[in-house]
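Session log. Operator J.P. requested a structure for one protein chain; no other inputs attached. Running the standard single-chain path with token output.
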Amino acid sequence: MSRFTQGAGVAASTLILVLTLGACGAGSAADQARTDPDTLQILAGSELKDMGSILEAAAKETGVKVHFDYAGTLEGTQTVADGAADGKYDAVWFPSNRYLTLLPGAKDKVASATKIMTSPVILGVKSKVATKLGWNTKAPTWAEISTAAAGGDFRYGMANPAASNSGFSALVAVATGLANTGNSLTAENIKEYTPSLTSFFSGQKLTAGSSGWLSDKFQTSTDIDGIINYESVIAGMDTTALGDSLTKVTPADGVITADYPLSILAAASDAKKAKAEILTEWLLKPSSQQTIMDTTARRPAVPGIALTDKFGKQPLVEQPFPNTLTVAHQLIESYLGTIRKPSQTVFSLDTSGSMSGERIAQLKSALKNLSGADASTTGSFASFQTREHVTLIPFNDRVGATARFTIPEADKAAELGRISSTVSGFNAAGGTAIYDSLVKALEEAEAQATSNPDTFTSIVLMTDGENRDGMDLKRFKNHYASLGAAAKQIPVFVIIFGEGNVKELQEVASLTGGKAFDARSSDLNSVFREIRGYQ
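Structure written below.
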């Protein structure tokens, strides 16, 4: 029988960490790690990047090393349930196994799971705002937080529940708190409290695909009052740029806590299972638990380790997690399609001659999957949602015609079909005018943000080559400097593909407050799906 500890979540990304000499990336070190009998292959949540020094210490003491591939909890647990992790990974280590336990067949894939550390999802609120609202002396309920958000007194950032464990945990806690039944959410609860949830999320001004990126963006934002994130992330934030300290606010009626179970897969060899058990035992030692708490600001999983003052004195009330997969999915679907503010995305898409053949086919496939061709759970969550504005701007040596779409609540399939048909018409030919296209995309996105200010507006730039035509990066930067504040609030998410100029494209992402995604050695479909978590 499998044994499970609890926790929950969702996300999407693929990275590699080799914990031998602390090196990262694919290559000879990673290849050697995959075949090393002393190295555990673990599919993990990206939150565990901060465990590097601790796992290096474990390797020195026990001889057990770790090779991480990172994935979001929803996508990673689906990999486990589908059997795709069998033979490739020895263990999985997500913030939670709660979602995994709901997936058909997933329980049988796990031999054992042991809670290693915990971190509740709470609020970090600028201290001036917390004092004004009275939250510095009395913990509010989720309903009281909702009242403040709906009244414009509390503007916050939260990660996308379809892409981040912290976001999903927050969504479950909010919905359960507003329903106030003392039991797990039901489908009827979600329907009944959708208006209340919509009021709560009217205060959400920042979204993100990961808890880390959310934290980074919040620290540079001047018009956001707080953040909903892991306690550990909030405790580790540098608040210098905020101009204020952060008050940790733990809702009085309960939270969802990540408990990071290290889960040994049933398909792992006996030798690797033994190695994983050695690592687990080492991580649970009092000295290791103390180091984890001091290093990561996560709470210990074993009794007898005294919490430091940074954790405060307020006891944690744990909200119940949905007990069926149907309810969990309905909650995410309602959030994406009805409850949250809609998104507006302008896609600037390279259709130059170098995109011919397999590359243009991959681009078409990725966009058609976002238009409903991918019927999987993760594909459905990543697809274009009702109320969303989608704009496609193809480019080669010239900027192509702009195609605009709005996904209606009724007959959604027809509009998605129009997007697919437009994508089918893309042809690869000509040169590459990246920055001319980006200028057009910024103009389009700024106009949409001005017309529809209560939305999440962003740009996706996908290119497989260097800029060959039109303005260069220097001229683009001069142009960008002349733009108004509204345009500079729009992040550009850059997909580096093929022979794209990595340095330049990363500079564009940084300049615009966006993020660069490397698709040179990964599936373009998965990268587009990952970016959707940031929109």
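Operator note: The chain is about 40% helix and 20% strand.
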